[in-house]
Amino acid sequence: MKKFVALTLGTTLLSSALLTQNMVHAATTTGAQNIETHMVINQLNNHAMGDLIKQSTTVSFADESGISAAETGRPSKDFIDISSNNGAISKDEFQLMKDKYGIKGVIVKLTEADSYRNPEAPAQIANAKAAGLKVSVYHFSWFANAEEAAEEANYFLDYAKELNLDQNTSFVNDYESVTVPESTENSLAFAQTLKNAGYTNVYHYSSKNNFDALLDMSKLGEKNCWVAQWPMDPSSDNLLNTNNAAWQWASDLYFPELGSARHFDISTDYLNAFS
Question: Are residues 96 and 151 both part of a single domain?
Fold first, then answer.
Protein backbone atom coordinates (compact mmCIF):
# COMPACT_ATOMS: atom_id res chain seq x y z
CA MET A 1 0.00 0.00 0.00
CA LYS A 2 1.35 3.45 -0.88
CA LYS A 3 0.71 6.24 1.59
CA PHE A 4 0.91 9.82 0.33
CA VAL A 5 2.21 12.29 2.89
CA ALA A 6 2.32 16.08 2.57
CA LEU A 7 5.37 17.51 4.33
CA THR A 8 4.01 20.67 5.91
CA LEU A 9 7.24 22.27 7.03
CA GLY A 10 6.38 25.92 6.56
CA THR A 11 9.64 27.77 6.06
CA THR A 12 11.74 24.99 7.61
CA LEU A 13 14.04 23.23 5.17
CA LEU A 14 14.39 19.47 5.02
CA SER A 15 17.08 18.26 7.38
CA SER A 16 20.36 16.79 6.31
CA ALA A 17 19.27 13.52 7.90
CA LEU A 18 16.32 13.28 5.54
CA LEU A 19 18.53 13.99 2.58
CA THR A 20 21.12 11.44 3.61
CA GLN A 21 18.46 8.78 3.99
CA ASN A 22 17.06 9.72 0.56
CA MET A 23 13.63 10.20 2.14
CA VAL A 24 12.71 12.56 -0.61
CA HIS A 25 9.58 13.26 -2.53
CA ALA A 26 10.40 11.43 -5.72
CA ALA A 27 11.80 8.42 -3.93
CA THR A 28 9.38 5.85 -2.61
CA THR A 29 10.41 4.44 0.77
CA THR A 30 9.09 1.38 2.58
CA GLY A 31 8.58 1.57 6.33
CA ALA A 32 8.45 -1.09 9.03
CA GLN A 33 4.85 -1.94 8.12
CA ASN A 34 5.66 -2.25 4.41
CA ILE A 35 3.86 1.01 3.69
CA GLU A 36 5.44 2.91 0.84
CA THR A 37 5.65 6.63 1.53
CA HIS A 38 5.63 9.13 -1.31
CA MET A 39 6.26 12.62 -0.01
CA VAL A 40 4.32 15.42 -1.64
CA ILE A 41 5.77 18.85 -2.34
CA ASN A 42 3.32 21.74 -2.06
CA GLN A 43 3.28 25.51 -1.71
CA LEU A 44 4.23 25.31 1.96
CA ASN A 45 7.32 23.14 1.60
CA ASN A 46 8.59 23.79 -1.91
CA HIS A 47 12.13 25.07 -2.38
CA ALA A 48 13.77 27.91 -4.20
CA MET A 49 17.02 27.35 -6.05
CA GLY A 50 19.90 27.09 -3.60
CA ASP A 51 17.78 26.55 -0.49
CA LEU A 52 19.39 23.22 0.39
CA ILE A 53 22.84 24.45 -0.62
CA LYS A 54 22.48 27.21 1.96
CA GLN A 55 21.54 24.62 4.56
CA SER A 56 24.58 22.47 3.90
CA THR A 57 27.13 25.24 3.28
CA THR A 58 28.72 27.83 5.52
CA VAL A 59 27.79 31.04 3.72
CA SER A 60 29.53 34.32 4.39
CA PHE A 61 28.66 37.66 2.89
CA ALA A 62 30.56 40.91 2.65
CA ASP A 63 27.55 42.74 4.10
CA GLU A 64 24.67 41.08 5.92
CA SER A 65 22.24 43.52 4.29
CA GLY A 66 23.06 42.10 0.86
CA ILE A 67 24.79 43.27 -2.30
CA SER A 68 23.28 46.23 -4.09
CA ALA A 69 22.84 45.96 -7.85
CA ALA A 70 24.26 49.48 -7.99
CA GLU A 71 27.65 48.37 -6.68
CA THR A 72 30.56 48.39 -9.12
CA GLY A 73 33.50 46.00 -9.17
CA ARG A 74 31.29 42.92 -8.89
CA PRO A 75 31.16 40.03 -11.39
CA SER A 76 28.84 40.61 -14.33
CA LYS A 77 25.16 40.77 -13.33
CA ASP A 78 23.73 38.85 -16.27
CA PHE A 79 20.68 37.01 -14.97
CA ILE A 80 18.60 36.25 -11.91
CA ASP A 81 16.63 33.14 -10.97
CA ILE A 82 13.22 33.29 -9.30
CA SER A 83 10.51 31.08 -7.82
CA SER A 84 7.14 31.56 -6.14
CA ASN A 85 9.13 32.73 -3.10
CA ASN A 86 9.87 35.93 -5.03
CA GLY A 87 6.16 36.53 -5.50
CA ALA A 88 4.72 38.69 -8.23
CA ILE A 89 7.23 40.74 -10.22
CA SER A 90 5.76 43.34 -12.55
CA LYS A 91 6.83 44.14 -16.08
CA ASP A 92 8.04 47.55 -14.85
CA GLU A 93 10.19 45.93 -12.15
CA PHE A 94 11.80 43.61 -14.69
CA GLN A 95 12.28 46.62 -16.97
CA LEU A 96 14.12 48.46 -14.19
CA MET A 97 16.43 45.48 -13.68
CA LYS A 98 17.19 45.40 -17.39
CA ASP A 99 17.46 49.09 -18.24
CA LYS A 100 19.25 50.39 -15.14
CA TYR A 101 21.25 47.39 -13.95
CA GLY A 102 21.95 45.40 -17.10
CA ILE A 103 20.07 42.22 -16.23
CA LYS A 104 19.54 40.32 -19.48
CA GLY A 105 17.82 37.11 -18.42
CA VAL A 106 15.68 35.40 -15.81
CA ILE A 107 15.38 31.71 -14.93
CA VAL A 108 11.92 30.88 -13.62
CA LYS A 109 11.15 27.85 -11.46
CA LEU A 110 8.43 25.78 -13.08
CA THR A 111 8.21 22.58 -11.06
CA GLU A 112 9.51 20.51 -8.17
CA ALA A 113 9.51 16.72 -7.89
CA ASP A 114 6.31 15.47 -9.53
CA SER A 115 3.64 17.30 -7.56
CA TYR A 116 4.46 21.02 -7.44
CA ARG A 117 3.95 23.72 -10.04
CA ASN A 118 4.97 27.31 -9.44
CA PRO A 119 1.66 29.23 -9.62
CA GLU A 120 3.51 32.50 -10.23
CA ALA A 121 5.35 31.15 -13.28
CA PRO A 122 2.86 32.21 -16.01
CA ALA A 123 2.87 35.86 -14.89
CA GLN A 124 6.59 35.88 -14.09
CA ILE A 125 7.41 34.58 -17.56
CA ALA A 126 4.98 36.91 -19.34
CA ASN A 127 6.25 40.00 -17.52
CA ALA A 128 9.91 39.11 -18.02
CA LYS A 129 9.35 38.59 -21.74
CA ALA A 130 7.41 41.85 -21.97
CA ALA A 131 10.44 43.62 -20.48
CA GLY A 132 12.70 42.09 -23.12
CA LEU A 133 14.47 39.56 -20.90
CA LYS A 134 15.51 36.11 -22.06
CA VAL A 135 13.50 33.51 -20.14
CA SER A 136 14.84 30.11 -19.09
CA VAL A 137 13.25 27.63 -16.68
CA TYR A 138 14.30 25.23 -13.94
CA HIS A 139 13.04 22.15 -12.13
CA PHE A 140 13.95 21.41 -8.50
CA SER A 141 14.87 17.73 -8.67
CA TRP A 142 14.24 14.94 -6.17
CA PHE A 143 14.80 11.87 -8.33
CA ALA A 144 16.81 9.02 -6.83
CA ASN A 145 17.00 6.73 -9.86
CA ALA A 146 16.77 6.90 -13.65
CA GLU A 147 13.08 6.03 -13.76
CA GLU A 148 12.18 8.84 -11.40
CA ALA A 149 14.45 11.19 -13.36
CA ALA A 150 12.44 10.53 -16.52
CA GLU A 151 9.16 10.98 -14.64
CA GLU A 152 10.23 14.32 -13.23
CA ALA A 153 11.54 15.48 -16.59
CA ASN A 154 8.17 14.71 -18.16
CA TYR A 155 6.39 16.56 -15.37
CA PHE A 156 8.65 19.56 -16.06
CA LEU A 157 7.93 19.26 -19.78
CA ASP A 158 4.18 19.15 -19.33
CA TYR A 159 4.12 22.55 -17.62
CA ALA A 160 6.62 24.02 -20.08
CA LYS A 161 4.40 22.98 -22.98
CA GLU A 162 1.31 24.43 -21.30
CA LEU A 163 3.19 27.71 -21.03
CA ASN A 164 4.14 27.53 -24.73
CA LEU A 165 7.87 27.65 -24.14
CA ASP A 166 9.69 27.04 -27.40
CA GLN A 167 12.35 24.41 -27.96
CA ASN A 168 15.16 26.98 -27.88
CA THR A 169 14.46 27.61 -24.18
CA SER A 170 17.20 26.66 -21.74
CA PHE A 171 16.05 24.03 -19.22
CA VAL A 172 17.85 23.52 -15.91
CA ASN A 173 18.08 20.51 -13.61
CA ASP A 174 18.42 22.03 -10.12
CA TYR A 175 20.18 19.16 -8.36
CA GLU A 176 20.84 19.80 -4.68
CA SER A 177 18.63 17.42 -2.72
CA VAL A 178 19.76 13.83 -3.24
CA THR A 179 23.15 12.22 -2.58
CA VAL A 180 22.99 8.84 -4.28
CA PRO A 181 26.02 7.30 -6.04
CA GLU A 182 24.13 7.39 -9.36
CA SER A 183 23.54 11.16 -9.24
CA THR A 184 25.40 11.80 -12.50
CA GLU A 185 23.70 8.97 -14.39
CA ASN A 186 20.29 10.02 -13.08
CA SER A 187 20.90 13.62 -14.14
CA LEU A 188 21.89 12.41 -17.59
CA ALA A 189 18.63 10.42 -17.79
CA PHE A 190 16.71 13.56 -16.84
CA ALA A 191 18.48 15.56 -19.55
CA GLN A 192 18.00 12.86 -22.17
CA THR A 193 14.25 12.79 -21.57
CA LEU A 194 14.10 16.52 -22.30
CA LYS A 195 16.31 16.16 -25.36
CA ASN A 196 14.17 13.31 -26.71
CA ALA A 197 11.23 15.72 -26.62
CA GLY A 198 13.16 18.26 -28.69
CA TYR A 199 14.41 20.52 -25.89
CA THR A 200 18.15 20.26 -26.39
CA ASN A 201 19.43 23.16 -24.26
CA VAL A 202 19.71 21.35 -20.94
CA TYR A 203 21.93 22.45 -18.05
CA HIS A 204 22.71 21.19 -14.55
CA TYR A 205 22.84 23.47 -11.51
CA SER A 206 24.41 22.60 -8.18
CA SER A 207 26.99 23.76 -5.66
CA LYS A 208 30.71 23.68 -6.28
CA ASN A 209 30.98 21.05 -3.53
CA ASN A 210 28.41 18.82 -5.21
CA PHE A 211 30.18 19.07 -8.55
CA ASP A 212 33.45 18.18 -6.87
CA ALA A 213 32.12 15.19 -4.94
CA LEU A 214 28.84 14.00 -6.46
CA LEU A 215 28.22 15.15 -10.02
CA ASP A 216 30.81 14.26 -12.65
CA MET A 217 31.34 17.25 -14.95
CA SER A 218 33.36 15.16 -17.38
CA LYS A 219 30.17 13.18 -18.09
CA LEU A 220 27.68 16.02 -17.80
CA GLY A 221 29.89 18.35 -19.82
CA GLU A 222 31.60 21.37 -18.25
CA LYS A 223 29.74 23.71 -20.58
CA ASN A 224 26.44 22.21 -19.42
CA CYS A 225 27.04 23.03 -15.76
CA TRP A 226 26.00 26.12 -13.81
CA VAL A 227 27.91 26.35 -10.54
CA ALA A 228 26.81 27.98 -7.30
CA GLN A 229 29.78 29.33 -5.34
CA TRP A 230 29.30 32.38 -3.15
CA PRO A 231 32.57 34.03 -2.06
CA MET A 232 32.58 36.47 0.84
CA ASP A 233 33.43 39.40 -1.39
CA PRO A 234 32.73 38.54 -5.06
CA SER A 235 34.83 40.61 -7.43
CA SER A 236 35.16 41.16 -11.15
CA ASP A 237 38.90 40.70 -10.57
CA ASN A 238 38.42 37.13 -9.34
CA LEU A 239 36.02 35.30 -11.63
CA LEU A 240 35.34 31.67 -10.70
CA ASN A 241 34.10 28.64 -12.64
CA THR A 242 34.96 30.21 -15.98
CA ASN A 243 35.06 26.83 -17.75
CA ASN A 244 31.36 26.36 -17.09
CA ALA A 245 28.16 27.74 -18.59
CA ALA A 246 27.51 30.11 -15.71
CA TRP A 247 28.47 31.01 -12.16
CA GLN A 248 25.96 31.95 -9.46
CA TRP A 249 28.07 34.22 -7.30
CA ALA A 250 25.58 35.57 -4.74
CA SER A 251 22.13 34.88 -3.36
CA ASP A 252 21.52 38.26 -1.73
CA LEU A 253 21.49 40.81 -4.55
CA TYR A 254 18.92 43.55 -4.22
CA PHE A 255 17.75 46.35 -6.47
CA PRO A 256 17.63 49.61 -4.44
CA GLU A 257 14.37 50.81 -5.98
CA LEU A 258 12.66 47.53 -5.02
CA GLY A 259 13.88 47.55 -1.42
CA SER A 260 16.84 45.89 0.28
CA ALA A 261 14.66 43.13 1.73
CA ARG A 262 13.90 41.63 -1.71
CA HIS A 263 16.92 39.45 -2.39
CA PHE A 264 17.67 37.66 -5.65
CA ASP A 265 20.21 35.07 -6.77
CA ILE A 266 22.56 36.59 -9.33
CA SER A 267 24.79 34.89 -11.91
CA THR A 268 27.38 35.55 -14.57
CA ASP A 269 26.61 33.93 -17.93
CA TYR A 270 29.84 32.84 -19.62
CA LEU A 271 28.21 31.28 -22.68
CA ASN A 272 25.11 33.47 -23.10
CA ALA A 273 23.02 30.40 -22.37
CA PHE A 274 20.63 32.33 -20.12
CA SER A 275 20.97 35.95 -21.20
Answer: yes
